[in-house]
Every structure is written in C-alpha cells, then in structure tokens.
Design goal:
- The chain is built from six helices and three strands.
- By secondary structure, the protein is mostly helical.
- It has a three-stranded antiparallel sheet.
- Strand 2 and strand 3 form a beta hairpin.
- The longest helix is centred in the C-terminal third of the chain and has 30 residues.
Length: 121
C-alpha cells in the first residue's frame, strides 16, 4: 500500500480496506456484540455473506489489524473473533456515516428516482 501523504485524496488508500463490501458489516457486528464472536454467529448475523467470503473478509481484517482471532483447542476446536482497539477507532466514523445515511438516505433515493425517470423518458 502506498503512503497517504502524497495522495490527492488522503482517504484513497484506505477506502477499499475500510469500505470493502463486507468490512463495515463484519466490524459493525463485532462492535455491537462487544465481545468475542464465533464464526457461526457471524454467519447467522450476516446471512447474505457466503462462508467463503466471510472467511476471506475476516482474514483481511485480521491482516490489517482490525480483527483479532483466538483459537481454542478442543473437540471441536473453537475460533472466536473480536474487533481490535484499532477497529474501535473506526466506530465514530461508521456512526457518523450511519447518521448521514439516516438523515439523507431519502434524498438520495429521490435523486435516483428523478434521474431514472429522466433517463427512461
């Protein structure tokens, strides 16, 4: 990954990292739970994500320091995931985006409807 300092948009390098298709969803569930969550529970709480994609997303989040993984040996072995303190620093960002979405989502939908109506005319 390139450095942030020289980029025209300072958030460009982290956009994919933080706003990948499932990143926010996984981090949101981990934050809402407030503790460690097993893979099956994540799958249950995010039913639209396939196990393969969830596994890949968790590995990427772990690689980037946003998710910690704890393996508990035993029969059957257990693996739990938790948001790291670094991920916790993103919660105000996600909260602000959620607030914006609630405040302006209707405006966006109305703009899309107007645009689509003009395009189909």
């Amino acid at each position: 990954m390139t450095g942030i300092a020289g980029d025209a948009c300072p958030i460009g390098p982290v956009m994919e990292l933080l706003f990948g298709r499932w990143t926010a969803d996984v981090l949101w569930v981990l934050d809402q739970d407030g503790g460690r969550v097993r893979f099956g529970e994540l799958q249950r709480r995010l039913p639209d994500i396939s196990p393969k994609v969830l596994s890949h997303t968790l590995r990427q989040l772990e690689r980037n320091g946003l998710v910690g993984r704890t393996h508990h040996p035993g029969v059957p072995p257990r693996v739990e995931y938790a948001a790291t303190p670094l991920a916790g620093t993103l919660i105000p960002v996600y909260d602000a985006l959620a607030d914006w979405s609630r405040a302006h989502g209707g405006e966006v939908l109305a703009a899309q409807a107007r645009y689509d109506a003009e395009e189909s005319a």
